[in-house]
Inverse folding.
């Protein structure tokens, strides 16, 4: 089992550019979660999907952030336009379904916005 | 809304000694779950231990154990016989029970960085 796959592992971009982070959940997992980790705010849940449908996006910081899950094996988190304060590590996690206790985390994407 | 607080940004322990990481939480729910996750320098998030709120017995996983005080809303992690590989950031997390509309969410504390000295 390859686990949760995220790409890229590192992204450096300039302010104003569009950034797209990608996630492939574990096969068979129906729930997918996007988290952001910063020094100031710790680990925050941005949005989660169940069966490709967004269930709760109340953690998405503002309209510049959007997330999609077009199918069960792929999700994207897009930031447009990016700002320096978006610099963080973004984690994707999956679980078989929301009620399963354990989250399986990906390795994260470190985003730096200059 | 539920909150999780880890008041110790950094802790250190001598190898082979015991260390306790603190976590408190706030909730009005009676059914919930608590977790400790470990994040080593590789950034991977690893589940260390979990506790069901309805269970009075403290969870134990090898050298890791918790002190769950439901009335005090406290959930500390004890690491016995600390090893160099235990050095990492540790996150305490809360999840609502199955009957809640929030059941999908994991709410994390700010994290505690643990240093293990040889």
């Amino acid at each position: 089992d390859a686990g949760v796959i995220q790409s890229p592992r590192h992204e450096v971009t300039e302010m104003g550019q569009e950034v797209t982070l990608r996630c492939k959940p574990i096969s068979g997992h129906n729930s997918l979660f996007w988290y952001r980790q910063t020094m100031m705010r710790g680990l925050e849940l941005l949005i989660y999907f169940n069966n490709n449908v967004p269930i709760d996006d109340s953690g998405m910081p503002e309209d510049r952030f959007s997330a999609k899950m077009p199918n069960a094996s792929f999700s994207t988190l897009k930031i447009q336009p990016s700002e320096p304060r978006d610099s963080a590590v973004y984690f994707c996690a999956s679980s078989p379904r929301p009620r399963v206790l354990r989250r399986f985390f990906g390795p994260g994407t470190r985003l730096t916005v200059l | 809304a539920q909150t999780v607080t880890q008041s110790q940004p950094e802790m250190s322990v001598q190898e082979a000694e015991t260390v306790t990481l603190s976590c408190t939480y706030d909730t009005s729910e009676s059914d919930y779950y608590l977790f400790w996750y470990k994040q080593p320098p590789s950034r991977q998030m690893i589940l260390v231990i979990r506790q069901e709120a309805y269970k009075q017995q403290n969870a134990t996983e090898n050298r890791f154990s918790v002190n769950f005080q439901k009335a005090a809303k406290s959930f500390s992690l004890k690491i016995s016989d600390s090893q160099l590989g235990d050095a990492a950031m540790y996150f305490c997390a809360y999840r609502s029970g199955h009957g809640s509309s929030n059941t999908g969410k994991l709410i994390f504390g700010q994290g505690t960085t643990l240093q293990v000295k040889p």
